[in-house]
Amino acid sequence: MRIGKVTIGSIAQWTLSPGLVTSWHPTTASCEKARQAPVSSVPVSYMQTQHLRGYYERTAAGLDYSRQIIATCEVPGTCDIDAMTYGLNAYLRRHDTYRSWFDYAGAGDITRHTISNPADIEFTPTDHGEMTIDEVHNHVVAIPNPLQWGCFTFGIIQAESHFTFYASIDHVHGDATLIGATMLEAHGQYAALTGGGEPLALPDAGSFDDYCDRERRYTSGLTADSPEVRAWIDFAENNNGSLPDFPLPLGNPMEPTAGDMVMEPLMDAEQTARFESACAAAGARFVGGLFACQALVEHEFTGAVTYYGLTPRDTRRTSENFMTQGWFTGLVPITVPIAAASFSDAAWAAQVSFDANLDLAKVPYYRVLELAPWLQRPRPNFPVSNFLHGGAAPLNAVLAAAELGYANNIGIYSDGRYSYQLTIYVFRYEEGTAMAVMFPDNPVAQKSVARYMAAMKSVCVRVADRGHWGRVA
């Protein structure tokens, strides 16, 4: 799928020219420094903990786990390997998350080890010769697992008139913001050096370690009676003691499967503008209207009188943290009464719920489980809906990198694995609105996701064309 000048999809959908492959990996000395790195007093964040335990448990059960964010771009000419080496090392030393690795054996707490001196991080190039496209795909996803240091690699594929740059980074070290940061920093540094200039002078990156400390101090002060914890408890108890389920069957979650991602345009630019007008008339913003449509789709599939949804929110709140690499995302619970509701009523209710619950993103559900042990961990395939606007972070940084000419043909890809969470993306950009879903690749899920996306398109277009969705069946 093309979002402006950016392509989004699964690794198998990455089209590129075959060529000579060079990749960057840590030196033996850096690996030894990491191995000797002492245990850190910095706590592991809740999102990192969830990711690492998810990887460990799914792997132990013989299942796969989606864990990589892959960013790519094309650059004219022949790669200057020395300049790229300088740019990548400057980028890695700049962000403190890359100094950490984690120790977990399936019981007890996860331990963080941290390299003390960022200068001990050194990546050097390795020449792999020519690879086919399939070989490149396999090479890019074959990075160390998140319980090893160095689960982030970079490379180029040199074609005749251009090279393709890629960054393959485990989610434990970043959320979607890393795509823009990598393009603007690592590749921007390369562009500055090869353009005959001096290395880029960048502002302070901030510290993800500091964020982890702040998160632990804040969550340690919560109790089961804290209002924000009570809100999560009520939400979970209304969903059979856990987080919501997808409204359609997705197959057996204990059967090994790859991941797939499918995409569907929901509305063109004119329909998107009319949809936004309908949201405004209801006293809602675009995001409130989208959740109202998801609520109606679930009601039509299941008869549910109330819709419960989840959406991520970036918890960065200071100017320096907008430059910080790390996983700052929390979840916001959404509740929408939907039985016999008009679009206006549902959109307004969704907007009120979204706005009222934004601060709950600072309260990890896994902290709530510690305080309310009668609740359950999320069930397999629980859905999380991401709304990404071309004018807002993190998508705007990626689009800006493309528009400013830092790179051509920017791509964002998943690793083709499936984890535990069904992920829904809705993109709003200049050409309109589109939806993508990442799901387990089995016949049951394929059929269900196709039905879901068709229903979402139908409802959104009805609202765009009429200003309402008509009578609820």
TrEMBL record:
It holds the Pfam family Condensation. PROSITE patterns: PROKAR_LIPOPROTEIN. Residues 71-369 form the Condensation domain. It comes from the Bacteria. GO terms for biological process: lipid biosynthetic process. GO terms for molecular function: acyltransferase activity. Keywords: Acyltransferase, Transferase. This is Acyltransferase.
